[in-house]
Amino acid sequence: MKAGPMRASIPTLLAAVIGRDLRLALRHGADTLGSVLFFILAGALFPLALGPSPELLRRMAPGIVWVCALLAALLPLDRLFGSELEDGSLDQLMLSGLPPALVALAKMIAHWLTTGLPLLLAAAPLAIMLGLPLPVLPILLGGLALGTAILSLIGGMAASIVLGARRGGVLLPLLVLPLATPALIFGAAALDAAQTGLSWRPDLELLGAFLAGALPLCPLAAGAGLRAAVE
Predict the structure, then answer these.
(1) 165: phi then psi, degrees, rounded to nearest 5
(2) Where is the signal peptide (predicted)?
């Protein structure tokens, strides 16, 4: 008897889906570029509104950076699954052999690599422009690395829930923003504590605990949303 064709392993399929999304992002780089430009331009507007006082900008810098990062990460979410649903490739992904939760996880990882990582690179110059002290930049980047990963997980879950809805683009921010508020609070509080000489570790540990909770739960919920959308 002839042996049947060997099916690819789950890690191989997961890497293939991530690689596919990265290639698509490189081919259509407007979403990534738009998010980074929005992040920088939105942050640059605050000095115009608040005035040129270095002390005021330094005190407001943690909240400014985190709010701008949260809003910038929202921009490409409405197309995270929507384009695949429109052209039928989402059905192929669901038939690829990956569980729906892992399909969603692969898309979330690709979203972080194409949106969260560029925002991390853009955060340092924006923070310096706002007068954030150089010694606290590692805390900013560490907190944003955790925070943008949380935003990708929560955003992917919300994008799958509103997939196919008539006004999904309007519902998406209404779902994401309340759920992402704890990450915003802990991330900005860690930076503020570092600037004032207090311990910043508890806030980053809470941010890490939030990520540890979101990592298994958000892909499961997103997988259920994808299954409902294709059925």
Answers:
(1) -70, 150
(2) none
Helix/strand/coil percent split, the chain, to 5 = 85, 0, 15
Nearest to 137 by CA among 146, 150, 128, 145: 128
* Res. 151 pLDDT band, cuts 50 70 90: very high
Torsion of CA 214, 78, 172, 154, to 10 degrees: 10
As a whole number of angstroms, the distance between CA 74 and CA 51 comes to 27
- Quick one: average pLDDT of 80-104? 80
Domain limits of the chain? 10-230
Closest C-alpha to 104, from 9, 228, 226: 226
pLDDT for position 24: 83
Percent of the chain scoring above 70 in pLDDT:
94
Q: What is the mean pLDDT of the chain?
A: 86
At position 223, the amino acid (one-letter code) is: G
